[in-house]
Design brief:
This protein is mostly helical. The chain is built from 22 helices and 4 strands. Helix 10 runs antiparallel to helix 11. The radius of gyration is 23 Å and the shape is globular.
Length: about 550
């Protein structure tokens, strides 16, 4: 916990300094510490995204950024902004920050941390963005801009990958600065995302902040739209946010197109990044085929889409069973899944219905636009992959709009305290969660509390692997474990090796002497098939 606090004390001034530079170019998102740090996050992510095409996000990139940020923090005397808080506000911030830091010190438990987040960050720090890396491991084709941000600070400032914990402290600063106390009610739920660089936390937080700024009358469309697009690029399921900001700027504020240029520029950069690493504009959808030579194999993408469909039904049905569903069966079975997912799905539809009726009765243009934006997003999610993690943000938005005027400071602090105690208890004693919610699978991976957390956040080490070669690709596989979070690069997940072998292909280096030249897929010849079969035999015997 202490080491995370040190990281926060170090990183926040850097973000404020970079944010000051962004303000000089595009104006301020909103005044204050949080406004500067968020502008700094936006600016750093854009610059590091561009840099990562050409070089890894190594210690030199981080040092240059730190020097630049600290220089502006000192030169413009930004430290004076911390004097604005009263004694009571300082005590509240201390209390909230302690809860955040303690929650962030627990060991990661989200499976994507080991199979996606950490491997992505390793690639970015060691090589940068690699052309066609989705051919090596399809999951890596996401290369979220949030992991670009985490990777850049992982060399010195945040080696334990707790950038989400620091982000929550920034959120607390925003709440106290703005005195919009209802946001305190959201922090306890977000504590569950604080141990990993999960993109879910920043997109929920950024969407709530942008929405709050719109509600309170912020008219800086340049940065509001840019930030909404930025949120979308972190996780495209947040498409409702740029739709809302765009419709609000055109229909209510009557803004001109020039104020949208920065946002659309960020969107273009997002498409270019995806084309570079994945081969299509938006991961994982194979739409917008430009005939790029390093795009993934169609059969592998088909397996991925089948898996996504199974995830919609919490893997409780096979793909063949789902294909046989009638429309009524598809709806009924989604509503009545075994376990807690069923309750979440039902609550989602009920919440949408209540919110839509409320928007219709209030007849306020802004609330109507919010309702329409949320409905568009919900329909798209239901069409492509109706997993609860893709629509969890909708609950936050609906709660914020419906109860915006109800929660004062006292009520919000009370809710924050009670819910924080609940979620800290869950993290500390996971057996309770496993006992009462056995269908919540992630709960099985929560390790509980350890005394070492007070000074150092809990982490895992495994580093057991085997090395293999197929064709010109020498790669590593984690031994008797499905994920490669600390396996030396290049590493490949077992699942993708099996999928590739099933389709008769295998990833290969574009240039056998230079990984940075990227990866392609290739039909295996007879020798390569024998090499792949030998590897699969070893994998199957090991996993037995």
């Amino acid at each position: 916990m202490i080491l995370i606090l040190i990281s926060a004390i170090f990183i926040i001034p850097v973000l404020m300094g970079i944010g000051r530079i962004v303000e000089l170019v595009a104006g301020n998102l909103f005044p204050g510490i949080a406004g500067k740090t968020l502008s700094g996050i936006l600016g750093i992510c854009i610059i590091w995204n561009i840099i990562s095409f050409f070089t890894p996000l190594n210690i030199y990139i981080e040092i240059i950024t730190i020097i630049l940020g600290v220089s502006f923090f000192v030169k413009d005397k930004l430290f004076r902004e911390f004097r604005q808080f009263s004694t009571g506000e300082i005590l509240l911030l201390t209390f909230v920050s302690f809860i955040i830091l303690w929650a962030g010190s627990y060991a990661p438990y989200i499976l994507d941390h080991f199979g996606y987040y950490v491997p992505t960050i390793k690639w970015l720090t060691e090589y940068g963005l690699i052309k066609g890396i989705s051919n090596l491991d399809l999951t890596l084709g996401q290369m979220s801009v949030w992991h670009i941000f985490q990777a850049g600070f992982s060399n010195i400032s945040d080696p334990f990958l707790r950038i989400n914990t620091i982000l929550l402290i920034i959120y607390a600063l925003y709440i106290v600065e703005k005195k919009n106390w209802i946001h305190l009610c959201f922090i306890p739920v977000m504590l569950l995302y604080s141990q990993s660089p999960s993109p879910d936390l920043p997109v929920i937080m950024f969407s709530l902040i942008v929405l709050n700024e719109i509600i309170t009358g912020n008219k800086n469309i340049i940065l509001l739209f840019a930030f909404s697009i930025f949120t979308f690029t972190i996780k495209p399921t947040m498409i409702w946010l740029p739709i809302l900001v765009l419709s609000h700027s055109i229909l209510i504020l009557k803004s001109n197109f020039q104020k949208l240029i920065l946002g659309f520029s960020i969107l273009i950069l997002f498409f270019i990044k995806n084309l570079w690493v994945f081969g299509y504009p938006v991961f994982p959808i194979a739409i917008g085929d430009l005939g790029i030579s390093w795009k993934p194999n169609e059969e592998v993408l088909k397996y991925s889409s089948q898996y996504a469909l199974q995830k919609t039904y919490d893997m409780q049905y096979s793909y063949e069973e789902i294909q046989k569903f009638s429309t009524s069966d598809a709806i009924k079975n989604w509503f009545f899944l075994k376990g807690i997912k069923s309750e979440i799905n039902i609550l989602f539809i009920i919440s949408l219905f209540i919110f839509s009726i409320s928007a219709w009765l209030k007849k306020k243009k802004l609330i109507t636009l919010i309702s329409i934006s949320i409905l568009i997003k919900s329909i798209l999610v239901l069409i492509f992959s109706a997993q609860y993690r893709f629509f969890i943000d909708v609950f936050f938005v609906i709660f914020l709009v419906l109860f915006y005027e109800y929660f004062n400071k006292r009520k919000s602090i009370a809710v924050f305290s009670v819910l924080s105690l609940l979620f800290i208890t869950v993290l500390s004693f996971p057996s309770l969660l496993q006992q009462y919610f056995p269908s919540f699978k992630s709960g099985n991976f929560i390790s509980g509390v350890k005394k070492e957390q007070f000074y150092r956040p809990s982490t895992y080490e495994y580093c057991q692997f085997k090395s293999f070669r197929v064709g010109n690709l020498k790669f590593n596989i984690s031994k008797n474990y499905p994920f490669n979070f600390d396996t030396p690069l290049p590493s490949v997940s077992v699942g993708y090796i099996l999928d590739d072998a099933k389709t008769g292909i295998f990833p290969q280096l574009s240039d056998k002497n230079n990984i940075r030249k990227g990866f392609i897929w290739k039909k295996m010849d007879s020798l390569e098939k024998k090499e792949a079969e030998s590897i699969i035999n070893i994998i199957e015997s090991t996993y037995k």
